[in-house]
Structures are given as structure tokens and as C-alpha cells.
């Protein structure tokens, strides 16, 4: 199902609720609707490539920076659909908007569940996008502007939900958090998500 059709289906319930997203979303579809409507109602910029998108742009979808396949393995609840049916904890994790970012769908798919890291050279995997992939080592290197946001999202997810970050990955995320501090746009975004979910990402200061 493409994103345009999905959003049209998800917008239907708002006719009965006055168009107000409710706080503390507890499932991914509710969270996804709120994510696009409330955080990006006029479009925005994708995380990895800085692509400027408009509402209902079919090339853009929502990326979980901390991949859900990592979560399903750690929780041992089965595949993603089964985890949605059987694990309240998984639903909280999957729907957390501090871990969701707009991304070009092809870049999101190419990243998959690869870890973040440093990739030698500047062989960009996509035209006009500073995003390198090392398939052998299963690492991706995002543009510098995205690194701080990625780091703070991963650290937040690990700390909030007791999820694993391998030692090398955590060290790199802590380094990126220090080297690429949040700007006012990121702090504003953090405040908006906190209003919707009831808690901020404490790494965004």
C-alpha cells in the first residue's frame, strides 16, 4: 500500500474526533497518522538526504532509526505482525515518535537494519545524497547533519526501553551526540513530540 492511500485511510477517524490527535499513542498506525499530520503537516526535510518534501510525497516514508527487526529479536515475540498482536511493550516501542524520521523510501529500504558507522571514502549510494553503504561490513554512514539526531534517538531508545546497543555502536553514538549537538529546530521537534507522547528525549538539550 503506498503512503498516499495509507494516509487517506488513516485520516478517516479524525472526522469523529474533531481532528485532534490524542496523546500517548499506543499503536503504530495511530502514531504514524499523528507523525505526519502534527509534526510534518506542511512537509519538511528527510533525515538522510535533506530532500525537501511536500505532504503526500510518495517518495517519502517513516524510518525507524532503531530498527524494529532489532526489537523483535530482543523481545522474542516473533515477526513484526505477531509482536503487534502479542506484545504491549513492542507496540509502545514501535509507536514512539522520538524514533521516527522522514526518509526517502529507497534510502530507508537500502539501509534496512544496518548499523551506523564510518564508511571509508565518499562513494555516495544515491545521487545528491551524502549516504554511504558498506555492504560487506553492514554499515551505513549518514550525512553529518543527521548524525546527532540519529545518535540521540538511538541512545534514547536504548535507555528508555532497555534495548541493546553494542558497545562499539554506543561509543560512536555518544561521540556523535557530543560532536553534533542539537539545534533549535531539533529542540522544537522534541518539545512537540513530548507534548504528544508525554515525555521528551532527555538527550536533546
Describe the structure.
With 205 residues, the protein is mainly alpha-helical. The protein has one domain (3-197). The protein contains nine helices and seven strands. The protein has helices at residues 3-11, 28-39, 68-75, 80-86, 88-95, 105-111, 144-161, 167-179, 184-197; strands at residues 44-45, 52-53, 60-64, 100-104, 115-116, 132-134, 139-141. A three-stranded mixed sheet has the order 5-7-6, with no helix packed on it. A two-stranded antiparallel sheet has the order 1-2. It has a two-stranded antiparallel sheet with strand order 3-4. The protein is globular and about 45 Å long. The model is unreliable at 1-23 (pLDDT under 50). Residues 183-205 are annotated as: Disordered. Pfam families: Endonuclease_1. Residues 1-17 form the signal peptide.
Main sheet attributes: strand count, strand direction, barrel closure:
3 strands, mixed
- Mean pLDDT, rounded to whole units? 89
State Rg.
17 Å
Low-confidence stretches: 1-23
Number of helices: 9
Largest sheet: spatial strand order:
5-7-6
The count of strands amounts to 7
What percentage of residues falls in helices of 4 or more residues? Answer: 40-55%
> What is the 3D shape?
globular
Counting structural domains, the number is: 1
Instruction: Give the N-terminus to C-terminus distance in angstroms.
Output: 37 Å
Task: Please state roughly what percent of the residues sit in beta strands, choosing from under 5%, 5-15%, 15-25%, 25-35%, 35-45% or over 45%.
Answer: 5-15%
What is the ordering of alpha helices and beta strands?
HHEEEHHHEHEEEHHH
